[in-house]
Amino acid sequence: MVKRLIILLLFISNITIAQNSIKKLFKFSTFYAAASGGTSISDLETFSVTNGLETSTVKTPYDYNLSLGIRKIARFGYENKAQTFYDGTENSWSDGANIGKVSGLEFLFEIDYKRQQGNEYLDQHHFIRFVEDKYILKGEYLEDGFADIKYFETSQRYRYKVNNKLSFNAGLAQRLSEPYGYNPLQEWVLDNGDIHYTYLALQEGYTVDVYSNEYFDPNGTLVATSPEVWEEVVIPTVLADYTEKKRNELDLIIQHSIVLGFDYYKYSKSFWTHTWANIMPYHYDSGGDFSYHKYNDGQWLDYSGGLIFGYKLNKQLGTFIEGKYNKYWNRTWYDFKLGVNYVIF
After folding, report:
1. For the domain 30-182+251-342, what is the CATH code?
2. Hey, how many other C-beta atoms are within 10 angstroms of the C-beta on 325?
């Protein structure tokens, strides 16, 4: 009986310790789920004179954004929480920095389902960052639907603190992604730059009746009744679908790189600057069939960085600049804003 009681007490104690650890882990974090939407571009009237005057209306469905996330990131001095609730539309530029406002563990997990001007896409940004005086550990997953970039990255860096404002870091980074640089259409390109698009379409299941000028998709649906519609409307869809299919068939590849970076942060109520940068000057060549070295003909430079600057010249006039820029595998994505504020009184 005593033995069972001891086991029960130990079990309860372990549960209590686990609960306290979880509570500590998620302390000060915020979970949010939100939906927003609005009118997209107005209806567009199109005209055709192929069979007499014909008019049609192109309608674009409304825009929306569905966000789901949880974050535990300490705000910098210039980041005032202006809103009562997180709604998923916030753009925290400092999330891209190497280090946070405080040492220790911070994380972000966010998914956004979006439709903008009729185009639907998925954005994801997840990271776990652990920062101490001598090292930085980070794991990150990014998917940007507009930029067509998706990768998972880990890095392990030694950190050298010059002072409380400036620090440098150096280490290794590993990125898992699709083989960027691979062009599925290259094998179909002729010497003169044209492409065997009809042969490609036939391979993909399309059929062509050259005598009646009828073109059918793999399901047997009539998709064009003239060479002009076939080349200008159907073929672009064939090429896009083929490219996506061939890219999805390939396995992900891992890229090992050297990474160097720095962070600088200074804040006062009238002036602040926060900037960071990373460069990857060397990438290990595994010699695989889809190594980016092959498409780039050797080494290349990947880099990312950000700048947040604010200056209040006096009680009335102030100016700001904020932005992030990324270039991986010669693919770029960025955001920026700048402006002037003048308070009239």
Report:
1. 2.40.160
2. 16
**Start-end ranges of CATH 2.40.160 in the chain?**
30-182+251-342
> pLDDT (tens digit, 9 = 90+) per residue, 95-152?
888 998 888 899 899 999 888 777 888 899 999 999 999 999 999 999 988 778 899 9
Task: Tell me if residue 292 falls in helix, strand or coil.
Answer: helix
SS3 of residue 289 by DSSP: coil
pLDDT for 325 equals 95
Spatial separation of the C-alpha atoms in residues 132 and 169, rounded to whole Å: 12
The 8-class DSSP code of residue 270 comes to: S
Q: Burial letters for 146-177: b for 16+ Cβ neighbours within 10 Å, e otherwise?
A: ebebbbbbebebebeeeeeeebbbebebbbeb
Dist CA 217 CA 304 (whole Å): 43
- pLDDT reported for residue 160: 95
- Give rounded-to-5 percent helix, strand, coil for the chain: 20, 50, 30
pLDDT exceeds cutoff 90 at 237: no
Burial, 3: exposed, middle or buried (Cβ in 10 Å; 0-12, 13-18, 19+)?
A: exposed
- pLDDT tens for each residue of 75-106: 888 887 656 666 666 667 788 889 988 888 99
* Residue 308 CB-density burial (10 A; 0-12 exposed, 13-18 middle, 19+ buried): buried
Look up residue 54 and give its amino acid: E
Asked whether the beta carbons of 261 and 168 are under 8 A apart, the reply is yes
- Could you say which DSSP state residue 230 is in? I
Residue 245: partners with Cβ closer than 8 Å, 6 or more residues away: none
Q: Please say if the pLDDT value at position 274 is more than 90.
A: yes
Give dist(CA 145, CA 333) in Å, integer. Answer: 11
Both structure tokens of 274? 């926060």
